[in-house]
Amino acid sequence: HGLAFLQFLSLMLYMISPLIRMPLLSHLPPLNLQVTGGSSGIGKSIAMELNWFKWKKKVEKCAINDKQVFDVSKDYGQVESVIKQCQEKLGPVDMLVNCAGPSFSGKFEEVEVERFRSLMEVNYLGSVYPTRAVIATMKERRMGRIMFVSSQAGQIGLFGYTAYSPSKFALCGLAESLQMEMKPCNIYVTVAYPPDTDTSGLPLETRLISETSGVTQPDQVAKIVVKDAGNFNISVGPDGYMLSALTCGMSPVTSITEGLQQIVTMGLFRTVALFYLGSFDSIVRRCMIEREQSKAADKRE
């Protein structure tokens, strides 16, 4: 009876939480927003969703040397210069959305060593540099919002993501540390954990594991991310909600309700997660056996 009550309570908390949380952005005047990685995928969808809500004064691309694209992970000096130009032209950045960074999958021993470095540069430093460039102005004004778009692969390590997952895990540590530093300055930090939006090109094992939670379109992710931008953690879908509760650790909470949800659901979600992990291990073993059988059949022929 006790377990049934906890399950019922957790379900009720999950259902009423959208009513309790305040969508802070919807109550704010138009903002100057900057979205890195806004030319495609989730970044583009977030930029369009923000513009649709009319929270920014206008959509405008900032160029350097007449180029519409520049690398936010290679040269901090260049990043700082471009953002300075943007702020001189459009005003100070009120909200920065760090979304630049590619996904990548491959077996550990098959991934080029250079790829580990490049993913950490783009996915981690590509968020550090723009944030570093806007933080001084935000502190002077004592206001601002910074969002990091991580991934569910930044909450759980999966087959095929040995190069990608660490670069996304790093964003969580950055966000938690930065939030503690910036909160007294009225600067708030958010980290979002979207699921896979495309499983094409993934190793078979990775694709099968990813498909257990389904594939979400970038537009769907953007709607949730923008709606929940007042929270520290943003999860997408029931699996994402479970992962966020399981991995919350010492993460800050946005409300008492969120903290209660995590306390009540932790044991139940850990039980469910063990079944998931068993299923993932089974997928990996099955794929390995099928691959070995296929090789053996080829040799016999």
TrEMBL record:
> Where, per UniProt, does this protein localize?
Endoplasmic reticulum
The stretch of residues making up the signal peptide is 1-21
Q: Which organism is it from?
A: Oncorhynchus kisutch
Any idea of its EC number? 1.1.1.102
What is the similarity comment for this entry?
Belongs to the short-chain dehydrogenases/reductases (SDR) family.
- Enumerate the Pfam families for this protein: adh_short
GO aspect biological process, one term = 3-keto-sphinganine metabolic process
Which Gene Ontology cellular component annotation is one that this UniProt entry carries? endoplasmic reticulum membrane
- Give one GO term, molecular function aspect: 3-dehydrosphinganine reductase activity
Q: What is this protein called?
A: 3-dehydrosphinganine reductase
User: Per its UniProt record, what PANTHER family does this chain match?
Assistant: 3-KETODIHYDROSPHINGOSINE REDUCTASE
Main localization is endoplasmic reticulum
Q: In which pathway does it act?
A: Sphingolipid metabolism; Lipid metabolism; sphingolipid metabolism
Q: Which UniProt keywords apply?
A: Endoplasmic reticulum, Lipid metabolism, NADP, Oxidoreductase, Signal, Sphingolipid metabolism
